[in-house]
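User: Here's a structure from my thesis project, written as structure tokens. My advisor, Dr. K., wants to see whether a designed sequence matches the one we expressed. Can you design one independently, without my sequence as a hint?
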């Protein structure tokens, strides 16, 4: 609890105690004994002034800041807000002799403001915790010694020392040391991440176990933590349609109710026997209950709570407008690579021909050991053993086909079907989907009889020109690895009420069908170029659907920006994702998408509940007050009571369960 909140509580308690004492004391008799009675009425005036002064004490104790703020706004001309309504309502109550009611109205108004402050503090806490992920200093190795500097002063390529318990100040790669990192502030995941030399690390992560040295790869202003902080700071600037409606509503609503309160007082004074005081009192009841605090406070607070709840789970929503749009989503379009799959190749199957699988993998891995191509790396990883570089002799890259390599003195060809045709290998395509890497060994035409599966030389070959043909040794199937949680996430999306789930991919039909079948997606489009993805998304945006596109945020920026809601996955360290997307998932878990949808929908339900409840109660009490069936106590409930109930309802947005 803040100092300001503690001070407000003290003021409320002191004012409430003074009000109770004044109500319990026989003021009339006490002041009468002090000032006496006289025919000219002077003692009566003195008693009245004394009573006003006594009630002004608790009134000003609890409400001096409201009065001061309202007077300042009157001076600037921008005064038609709830503080102005409270000031004129309570001053009016003093004017007609309703001193206890005037003080009580201000007292309960401040109770409502206190509830609002506490609720806002709770909803801001998760975001405030995130804002605290930024380290104040960085320890840099310069000239052999450690130097403590501001993170903004660290250049790319410098070495930063991060001790246990400290936050990583800037993105980089581990140069030395092994440790565990707490990335909960970035990803929402509580499990620590193990890192070793060469592992990427991101600013805002907390080093847990042992000291590490990090070579920085970005400047501070471009680091992960800086981009996240900028996103969070700007999230409240983008208002939803509901918030914009409430803002416009309050701008016109306040002057209208002031005019209506005056008209009610005038009407009652002319056409009823209430008298001046009774007529003003009825207008004041209308004025108090009409205060739009519940709407003005609870709607933004609900959105703020929803954004805070999402951010705690590593789901960054760029504004309440996107949270509202997310609640309406009925169609989700997914990129394949990096979204449904890991975006990393792995050996899926090994089909040898006349040799065993280990030998086939060994030949292919040695041939590919100098390549950095993802397919080559996947074969080397599948081999999993030390490769003696002396085994590999001459290597020739064959663009668009594969490579020729001499291994242990023998010539091999590793590549696609085109290469097998060129070297006359009797190969066959694989029935499995994926990238197929064929392997063949070169043999001379004169040795073709010795090779069980060799092919004769071309008809134009002569004995003097011994053309090489190849013996086919088998093939290896490489596939992008499906994320383990993809099938469950797709099923969870359907449970969340998503009617259509579509996959777009640049891969071939067989690969797309395989991924769609494994994940439970029944509609997909394969063989798409980046421009084709935009065209396909445009065809889905037919005016009847609300479409979200989910991609990795690096190659999918055009589609992310074109959809109703662009969701970037695995955006930790990806500047392109944070720039292009409306909703950013800081890790690779596809299951956070239905979680984000649930958060958005519950937030919108709370917003609608608050609007409906507030308007219904206020309009009902306004009508009762205008007709004379409501007193100031009911008016206070219609204002402060409704405000408190709406705030308590808004707090529910911060406590949305992970499944429903």
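Assistant: Designed independently from the structure alone:
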């Amino acid at each position: 609890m803040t100092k300001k909140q503690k001070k407000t509580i003290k003021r409320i308690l002191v004012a409430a105690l003074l009000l109770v004492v004044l109500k319990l004391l026989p003021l009339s008799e006490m002041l009468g004994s002090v000032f006496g009675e006289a025919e000219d009425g002077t003692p009566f005036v003195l008693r009245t002034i004394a009573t006003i002064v006594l009630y002004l004490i608790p009134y000003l104790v609890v409400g001096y800041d409201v009065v001061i703020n309202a007077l300042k706004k009157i001076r600037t001309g921008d005064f038609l807000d709830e503080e102005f309504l409270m000031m004129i309502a309570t001053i009016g109550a003093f004017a007609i002799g309703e001193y206890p009611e005037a003080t009580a109205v201000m007292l309960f108004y401040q109770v409502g403001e206190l509830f609002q402050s506490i609720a806002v503090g709770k909803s801001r806490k998760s975001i405030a915790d995130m804002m605290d992920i930024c380290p104040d200093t960085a320890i840099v190795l310069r000239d052999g010694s450690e130097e403590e500097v501001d993170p903004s002063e660290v250049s790319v390529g410098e070495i930063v020392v991060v001790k246990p318990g400290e936050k990583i100040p800037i993105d980089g790669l581990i140069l030395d040391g092994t440790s565990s990192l707490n990335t909960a502030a970035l990803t929402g995941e509580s499990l620590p991440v193990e890192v070793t030399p060469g592992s990427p690390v991101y600013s805002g992560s907390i080093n847990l176990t042992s000291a590490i040295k990090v070579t920085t790869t970005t400047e501070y202003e471009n680091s992960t933590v800086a981009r996240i902080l900028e996103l969070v700071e700007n999230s409240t600037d983008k208002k939803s349609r509901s918030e914009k409606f409430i803002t416009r509503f309050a701008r016109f609503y306040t002057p209208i109710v002031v005019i209506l309160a005056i008209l009610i007082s005038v009407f009652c004074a002319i056409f009823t026997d209430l008298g001046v005081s009774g007529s003003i009192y009825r207008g004041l009841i209308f004025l108090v209950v009409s205060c739009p605090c519940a709407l003005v406070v609870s709607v933004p607070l609900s959105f703020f709570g929803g954004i805070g709840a999402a951010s705690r789970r590593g789901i960054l929503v760029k504004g309440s407008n996107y949270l509202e749009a997310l609640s309406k989503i009925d169609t989700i379009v997914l990129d394949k690579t990096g979204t449904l799959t890991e975006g990393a190749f792995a050996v899926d199957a090994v089909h040898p021909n006349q040799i065993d699988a280990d030998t086939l993998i060994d030949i292919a891995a040695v041939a590919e050991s100098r390549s950095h191509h993802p397919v080559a790396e996947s074969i080397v990883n599948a081999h999993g053993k030390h490769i003696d570089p002396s085994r590999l002799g001459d290597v020739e890259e064959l663009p668009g086909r594969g490579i020729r390599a001499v291994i242990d003195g023998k010539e091999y060809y590793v590549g696609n079907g085109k290469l097998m045709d060129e070297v006359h290998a009797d190969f066959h395509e694989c029935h499995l989907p994926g990238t197929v890497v064929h392997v063949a060994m070169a043999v001379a035409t004169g040795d073709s009889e010795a090779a069980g599966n060799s092919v004769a030389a071309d008809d134009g070959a002569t004995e003097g020109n011994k053309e090489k043909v190849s013996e086919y040794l088998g093939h290896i199937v490489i596939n992008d690895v499906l994320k383990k949680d993809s099938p469950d996430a797709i099923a969870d999306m359907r449970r969340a009420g998503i009617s259509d789930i579509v996959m777009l991919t640049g891969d071939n039909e067989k690969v797309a069908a395989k991924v769609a079948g494994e994940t439970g997606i029944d509609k997909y489009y394969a063989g798409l170029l980046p421009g084709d993805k935009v065209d396909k998304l445009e065809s889905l945006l037919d005016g009847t659907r609300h479409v979200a596109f989910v991609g990795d945020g690096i190659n999918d920026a055009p589609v992310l920006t074109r959809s109703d809601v662009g969701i970037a996955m695995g955006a930790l360290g990806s500047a392109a994702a944070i720039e292009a997307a409306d909703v950013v998932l800081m890790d690779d878990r596809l299951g956070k998408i239905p979680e984000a949808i649930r958060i958005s929908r519950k937030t919108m339900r709370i917003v609608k509940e608050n609007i409906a409840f507030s308007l219904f109660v206020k309009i009902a009490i306004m009508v009762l007050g205008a007709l004379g069936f409501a007193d100031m106590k009911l008016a206070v409930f219609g204002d402060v009571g409704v405000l408190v109930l709406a705030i308590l309802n808004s707090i529910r947005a911060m406590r949305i369960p992970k499944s429903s």
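When you compare it with your expressed construct, this may help: Confidence is low (pLDDT under 50) at residues 446-466.
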